[in-house]
Amino acid sequence: MRRTEPVDPDCAIEQALGVVGDAWSLLVVREVAGGVTRFDALQRQLRVSRKVLTERLSWLVDHGVLDRQRYSDHPPRHDYVLTGRGESLLPVLISLQDWGTRHVLGDGSLTATATTDSAEARRMEALVGSRVPDLTLADIRGAPVDPIDADTPWTVLFCFPGAYAPETGGYPPAWSDIPGTAGCTLEARTYTARHDALTAAGARVHGVSTQRPDQLAAFAAHESLPYAMLSDQDDRLAGALRLPTFRAGGSDRLKRGTLVIGNDRIVRATQFPITDPAASVDEVLALVRDLSARVRAR
Questions:
Q1: Radius of gyration, alpha carbons of the chain
Q2: Given phi > 0 = left and psi -120 to 50 = alpha, else beta, which region is 47?
Q3: How many alpha carbons fall within 13 Å on the CB side of residue 216?
Q4: Of 209, 73, 198, 71, which is closest to residue 147 (Cα–Cα)?
Q5: Dist CA 294 CA 290 (whole Å)
Q6: What b/e sequence results for 152-172 when a residue is b if at least 16 CB atoms lie within 10 Å of its CB, and e otherwise?
Q7: Neighbour tally for 149: CB within 10 Å
Q8: Range(s) of the chain covered by CATH 1.10.10.10
Q9: Strand ranges in 91-197 using DSSP code E only, listed in sequence order
Q10: Listed residue (208, 181, 189) closest to 275, CA to CA
Q11: Tens digit of each residue's pLDDT (9 = 90 or more) over 164-175
């Protein structure tokens, strides 16, 4: 039940919970971030009563978390989209996801990977056939860019925990003690080695991490990377697709995983977990070649 009278009006935690302190409100934000923006679709996805959903949507609109955008006048119908205030909740959702993965579904240990039978692996596999919503990530200059290349048949997004140029101060403390963190530089170099072959197969490659653009710029320059590196420091991609994450060095980090996406924004293949970063690049190249061959055969 929502409390209408805060006990401590100066407590930011309590004030925030007054807006998004029930499960349905946060789940609505989760679904809207993932591109489910219409009432009937939200009801089907959440399996919630029309009354409860109507109340939550109105509450979130009234408090500036969602914006209601009309797409039909007769009858009146609306899309619900995140405002800037709503997008600021994405790191909260990612933190809840990480806590649930680690402490509710897991044994509490910190890891940058997962098992093949984990909930994270199933969630990644379930992305195949889904649409990547319209969103932007920051390039190495900090400029917003669409991570999906509309002019190329396939976009490869390889997500990784973190890679640093030596002059930037190196990795966070105890980074190498976290299972699954090793191999980011090797993976990036292998994508460089396979870049021409991937381009010839019709793919555009983007590396994605939650590092700052300047950190990615330094790494890209140090390694002379021929492809773009994109920053998901605001958790837009992670929040929209519920990508596997972990928290280390005071920041949310992407677990290593790969998405192959068509220029129609539909996810065609995923890799997760990745136990051999270098071999995974060859697997992606084979996947892209196979997808292109299927298109030519139609």
A1: 20
A2: left
A3: 27
A4: 209
A5: 6
A6: ebbbbbbbbbbbbbeeeeebb
A7: 18
A8: 12-87
A9: 137-138, 144-145, 154-159
A10: 181
A11: 998 877 788 899
Whether residue 295 has pLDDT greater than 70: yes
Fold for 110-297, please state it.
Glutaredoxin (3.40.30)
Predicted TM-score (pTM) of this structure: 0.92
- Kindly state the tokens that stand for 69: 């955008």
Query: Which residues belong to CATH 3.40.30.10 in the chain?
Result: 110-297
Kindly list the distances between the CA atom of residue 129 and the CA atoms of 25, 58, 95, 119, 153, in Å, as whole numbers in the listed order.
26, 31, 26, 18, 16
The CATH class, in words, for 12-87 is mainly alpha
Structure tokens at 14: 């309590």
Tell me the C-alpha distance between 90 and 102, whole Å: 18
Asked if residue 1 has pLDDT above 70, the reply is no
Name the DSSP class of 102.
I
Instruction: Give the type of residue at 126.
Output: A
Place of tokens 């920053």: 231
Instruction: Provide the token pair at 170.
Output: 């190196």
In whole angstroms, what is the distance from residue 238 CA to residue 97 CA? Answer: 10
pLDDT at 277 exceeding the cut of 50: yes
For residue 138, the cross-strand partners are 144, 231
- Long-range contact pairs involving 164-168 (C-beta distance under 8 Å, separation at least 24): 164/211, 164/215, 164/218, 164/219, 165/215, 165/218, 165/219, 165/221, 165/222, 165/223, 166/222, 167/218, 167/222, 168/215, 168/218, 168/219
The mean pLDDT of the chain is: 94
